[in-house]
Design brief:
There is one protein chain. By secondary structure, this protein is an alpha/beta fold. The protein has a single domain, classed as HUPs (Rossmann fold), CATH 3.40.50.620. Strands 1, 2, 3, 4, 5 and 6 form a 6-stranded mixed beta sheet that branches. Strands 8-7-10-9 form a 4-stranded antiparallel beta sheet, with helices on one face. Strand 5, helix 4 and strand 6 form a beta-alpha-beta unit. The longest helix is centred in the middle third of the chain and has 17 residues. The N and C termini lie far apart (45 Å).
Length: 225
């Protein structure tokens, strides 16, 4: 019997990458052997999402995924980001366990998918999009029904009020989202941190600290309990 292809998952610490891991594990087509996460060194936080690196560590331990951390500066010009990601892909290819695929939690943004495909094409590593084109309203509700416990760690203040930062990703939140805001935040309206769910073997207790506004975004500071 041929071994399953070995894959890394692009792990943002949020619900979509976590759910992609759940879907892929349930299907059994790939052997997910690690998580690839970008961390902004100046803050020691997951890039864009803003979750503390210590929470990321606890999360990946609960997901039983070895971490591959790509460290970038703040601010980070795109050429530096692409250089560091290319180095991470080269290291993945050089691994003895033979990484051949990277799994992404993208939902419907064609330009994002095309960018990922174009960057991976020269490497021979194949991108996988297990959630692609799933209707986001139903997807959001499926996550909640399956026991995913997530909180909004970052919100775009052009689309959502400051008070949404720190809120639970639940049915009440979905009901309160303004018209035009995607239920999964796929257009960047919000980002999340997953504290529990079927992809984690244990919950990660967190407490919500202050909310800080920076660069047009509101970040809720989650801390381990």
């Amino acid at each position: 019997m041929n071994p399953r292809p070995r894959a890394l998952i692009a792990w943002s610490s949020g619900k979509d990458s976590a759910w992609a891991l759940h879907v892929v594990r349930r299907a059994g087509e790939y052997d997910v052997v690690g998580a690839l996460t970008t961390v902004t060194d100046a803050f020691a936080r997951v890039s864009i999402h803003g979750a503390r690196e210590e929470l990321l560590t606890a999360q990946l331990e609960a997901a039983e995924l070895p971490a591959t951390i790509v460290r970038i500066p703040y601010p980070c010009p795109n050429e530096i980001y692409e250089r560091e990601m290319a180095a991470a892909m080269a290291q993945a290819q050089a691994r003895s366990d033979g990484i051949t695929h990277v799994i992404f939690g993208d939902l419907f943004l064609e330009d994002v998918r095309a960018y990922r495909e174009s960057r991976l094409a020269p490497t021979g590593i194949v991108p996988v999009f297990p959630l692609w084109r799933m209707p986001t309203d139903g997807l959001a509700r499926d996550m909640i029904a399956a026991g995913v416990e997530a909180r909004l760690v970052c919100v775009d203040l052009k689309r959502l009020a400051n008070g949404f930062a720190g809120r639970r990703f639940d049915a009440a939140l979905l009901a309160d989202l303004p018209t035009g805001v995607d239920p999964c935040g796929e257009n960047g309206e919000f980002h999340s941190f997953v504290a529990a769910g079927p992809m984690l073997r244990r919950a990660i207790p967190v407490t919500v600290g202050e909310t800080v506004e920076r660069d047009g975004l509101a970040y809720a500071d989650f801390m381990p309990v």
